[in-house]
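Model: You mentioned two targets. I'll fold them one after the other.
Researcher: Yes, keep them separate.
Model: Target one:
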Amino acid sequence: MQEGWAVVQGERVSFERERGVSAITVSPEVAYLVVRVPTPDHITEQRQQVLYLLRDAEIPIFLIKLQRHGISFGVDSERAESARQVLEANGFQVQVKPHRVMVSIFAQNMRELHGVFAKVAEVLYEAGVAIEQMSDAHNRITCLIEATYAPMVVARLSEAFGLPLPAATR
């Protein structure tokens, strides 16, 4: 040790966060739109046209999924009718499924945890709740479901992952 240096005892510091599910959140209501293209022979171009039409109408979308006969996505509830009108005016068939929410299950390093995605799917299946869309990211899994099921789903997921029930569901 160099002259003038002192040894100081301290606590061991860990920069790694605790693993496991840490929170469950529910989004405000959204709508889920399923768009069918008019000419399946040109599906790629028509999917692209859907995206361009929504961009030009300044309607943000999320949870985009390519479907066999078109494309589906989520949109904020207040923009659903505008999206439907723009797309139908351009020859697309649009099914609007209102009153959906996104339930998000958070965990650090989600993709390194085994079985979380399967557990979420199992809990929703056993509850009889259809999953319209499911996505994952490094820190969360998100499920698009009917809004009426959200309190029950949050309660069941909280129980499955050992989390306290949020005050609103008690």
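Model: Target two:
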Amino acid sequence: MKIPSSNLNEVRLLDRAVLVLNANYSPMMICTAKRAICLDYLDKIDILANYNEKVSSPSLTLDLPSVIKIKNYVRYDNLSLDLNRKNIISRDDYLCQYCGCNKGPLTIDHIIPKGKGGTDTWENLVAACKPCNQKKGNQKPEEVGMLLRKKPKRPNRLHYFQKFVKEKQKDWRPYLFMEPFKT
């Protein structure tokens, strides 16, 4: 069964990212437009901003939500991100932190190797290309004459949300402290 192209475009619109704010306007998560529409139907959210597009069913047409705020405050103070490969590479902007290369797959390197007391922490893990990781081996960067492009640090969820902001998500910017609210 082939889906007509107009319906296929609406399916893609329903997958559009929506910024979810807590009742106190603090950013919580990102969900799909489909989820946001369901929450609106259940009267659990307020829609604060919409995309320019609309979605339709046989009986109604809705603006596509872009920013929503849940009505009842949820105790949620977790702005930290999980320490994992995907988040380390994203924090490092998909660049090797030694040579700046963005070609080929990236590995995760312990700045201070585990064998020399290094730990699995945000401050000790960086993205590295395979040649740099192999060159460094089980040494500290300064022992092999390598320098880090920037000092690694723990990111927070705001940085993660800010990476989602493209031209279509300009309404997100004030809620993510990227620009002031317009009065």
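Researcher: Noted. Anything on target two?
Model: Strands lie at 17-21, 27-32, 45-56, 61-70, 106-110, 125-129.
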